[in-house]
Design goal:
This protein is 0% helix and 51% strand. By secondary structure, it is an all-beta fold.
């Protein structure tokens, strides 16, 4: 099935990533990652921007109110949902300036997971971590390269994860007590179709995967079979999330990083599609 997208914003980001919809926020937030900015889209279509540091990798709501931002090498917390509210750091997670945070998300219990990568994408330099209650990071998966998309099945028993350079989306078993285990391939992306980047899981268990350099979003059913494609007018498609009042719009972020804007003038815009299936509420963090 082919699904047509439409434009939601102008090309406002150089490297748009990590879209998240929260009713508490009144709309969509995402990051212009390497500019270190969090962006917000309100119901009137206005885009606001807040600078948080050298990198803004992930934004997520907190259970207690406010939001979390994963910055270059630290987690930042706000106690208010206001985009411009003060942020406090939980401390530098590592000291190596060659490694930065990249993508992450939360499990149904509110544990926050965050991945890392080398700025030069050197193989095996990244890790995938879970944050302990105080914010310290513990390695869950070592020696990954570009730690990327992460989300859970509707019942919380499975987690989906992409290390982009593998060309796969993997699936892991998820247990509320013991965490993640049993990593195995879920879907393999033909390199000619791009590489798996951000992902989200819909209410039916379908996995929507943004394809970096692929100009598309793929939906894989719960058995790992490709059954829907959203084709974009730009090549560097980065991440997806469901939003809107009924969680029935698929929002798609894109990148203009090293792109000829004359050739791809909409690179860096946010797109949306109406796929005929609903998403799920974003999983907030207990941090």
């Amino acid at each position: 099935m082919s699904i047509a997208p439409y434009t939601v914003t102008d090309p406002v980001a150089e490297h748009g990533e990590g879209p998240v919809w929260s009713g508490r926020w009144g709309g969509l937030r995402w990051v212009d990652m390497l500019a270190g900015d969090v962006l917000a889209l309100d119901a009137q279509g206005t885009v606001r921007r807040r600078h948080v540091g050298a990198v803004a990798a992930v934004v997520r709501p907190r259970v207690s109110g406010g939001y979390l931002v994963a910055a270059e090498r630290e987690l930042l917390l706000s106690d208010s949902d206001d985009l411009d509210a003060p942020l406090r750091s939980l401390g530098e997670a590592w000291t190596d300036p060659a490694i930065r945070m990249n993508e992450g998300g939360c499990d149904p219990g509110g544990r926050f997971y965050i991945g890392s990568m080398a700025y030069d994408a050197a193989p095996g330099r990244g890790s995938f971590y879970v944050a302990e209650p105080g914010g310290a990071l513990r390695v869950v998966l070592a020696e990954v390269t570009i730690s990327n998309g992460f989300d859970f099945s509707p019942d919380g028993s499975l987690a989906y994860y992409a290390d982009t350079t593998t060309g796969r989306v993997d699936v892991l078993d998820s247990d509320p007590e013991s965490g993640l285990s049993g990593r195995r391939p879920f879907a393999v992306v033909d390199p000619a179709q791009g590489a798996p980047d951000g992902l989200t899981v819909d209410a039916e268990g379908g996995v929507w995967v943004a394809l970096w350099q692929g100009g598309a979003v793929h939906r894989y059913d719960a058995g790992g079979r490709l059954d829907a494609v959203v084709s974009l007018p730009v090549r560097k498609v980065t991440a997806v999330t469901f939003g809107g009042e009924d969680l029935d719009r698929l929002f798609i972020t894109t990148s203009a990083l090293d792109v000829d804007r004359a050739e791809q003038p909409e690179a860096g815009a946010v797109f949306a599609a109406d796929p005929g299936v609903r998403g799920r509420q974003v999983l907030p963090t207990t941090l």
